[in-house]
Amino acid sequence: MKSLAVLLTSALALASSALAAAAEIPQFTQEEIDTGVAIRELGRIAYENALARVEASTEGCTKENVRIRKEWRNMTLDDRKGYQEAVQCLMQQPARHTGLDGVRTAWDDYGALHYYQTPYVHNSATFLLWHRHYNWVLEQDLKELCGYTGVFPYWEWGLDCGTMGTVDTSPVFDGSEYSLGGNGEFIEGHRPSIGGAKAGSGGGCLLSGPFSNFTVNIGPVGSADPLKYNPRCIKRDLNNDICSKWATLRNTTEPILNATDIAVFQAIVQGDGRWPEGRTVGMAVHGGGHFSISGDPGSDFYFSALEPGFYLHHGNIDRMHFIWQNLDWENRQTIAGTNTMYDQPPTPEAVLEDNMGFEPLNRNVTIGQTMDTVGGTPLCYVYEPW
C-alpha cells in the first residue's frame, strides 16, 4: 500500500474541490456493479475526498492521526491475530454495567447496551450514526483495555457470496488461526434463521478455532429474563443462500448509487418498507449481513452484538454510509426520522443536537458529533477500498 503522505498528496490533486462540490459519479455497467468494479471506484473517490478534508484540517483529525480502516483480507496477519486476541481480552475484563446478573465481562457490556438501545437505534434517525459510534467505542476499548493498536476491520460480504465465493471459506470465518473462528457443527434438519431462505451449513456450537471456547452469557431476547446469567456456547450457521440474495456486491453498491437523500439511503440499507425504495430489497444488506452469519447470538436482533462478526458487518454498513456521504459531502450531513423504531411510540423528529446513549461504556455524544468520520470530535478515520 502507498504511504499515507503519498495518498494525501494524490487526494489533494484529485479532489481539491471536494470541500465545495459533489464528486462526479461515474456511470457503471451492471457487470461492473456486480463484480465490484463500481464499489471499488466509489470507495476510492470517497476515500480521497475524505483525506482531502483531513489535509485541510489543522486540529482535531489531521493527516498525522487519521486512522485507516481496512477490509479483513487486506489486514496484515499480525493485525488480524491482534484484533482477535483483543476481543478475547475484552471477554476477560470486568463489566462496567452494575446490577445485571448475567453481565460478567466487558464484552457482555456491549450486548447489554445493544439490548437496551435496540428499540431506538434501528429503523430510526440514529441507526447509521449510533452504530458508527458504537464501533468507535469498541475500537477505543480494544486499545485502552487490551492494548490493540492495529487496524479496525470491516467485512465486505459481497466478496464471499454469489459468484465471488462462499461465507464458509471467507478469511473471516474459515476457522483458521487468523479468522474469527469457523462455522458451527452441522445440525441435520435444522431450520433456517429466517423464512424464505435455505438453512445454513452449521447451526451448532463452534467446533474449533478462535472463539470455539467463547461463552455467551446473556440472552436470548425471548427468555423470561434476557439479562439473567445464561452461559452457553456460541453457535453459527453460515448461510450462503442469504448472502447470495441480500449481501452481494450489487446489494452493497446500488444503495449508494440510487439513494437520493439520507431517508432513502437508510431505508434501502435496512429494507424499511415505509419508503417505496425499501420495499424491493427484501431484508436488505443490514439483515443480509447479519443472517449470513446467523446462529446464537448472531440471529438475535437484540443480542447479536455478542457475535464477534457483528462489528465487521457493521463496519461495512458504516463504510457504505461513509462512501455515500463523501460523494456529495456538502449535501449529505443530514438525518431523517425520529428516535424510536418505526416511530413507535411516536416521538418528535430527531435533531443533530440530540444525545445518543452510550453509558456506561462511553460518554454520550450528540448525533451531529458522529456525522463526520474525520470530524475529530471524536471520530478520525477513513475506509480504505478493498
UniProtKB/TrEMBL annotation:
InterPro entries named among the record's database cross-references: Di-copper_centre_dom_sf, Tyrosinase/Hemocyanin, Tyrosinase_Cu-bd
Signal peptide: 1-22
Keywords: Metal-binding, Oxidoreductase, Signal
Domain of life the protein comes from: Eukaryota
One Pfam family, short name: Tyrosinase
Gene Ontology MF, one: oxidoreductase activity
Residue ranges occupied by any Tyrosinase copper-binding domain in the UniProt entry: 105-326
Listed name of the protein: Tyrosinase copper-binding domain-containing protein
Organism whose genome encodes this protein: Dichotomopilus funicola
Lineage of producing organism: Eukaryota, Fungi, Dikarya, Ascomycota, Pezizomycotina
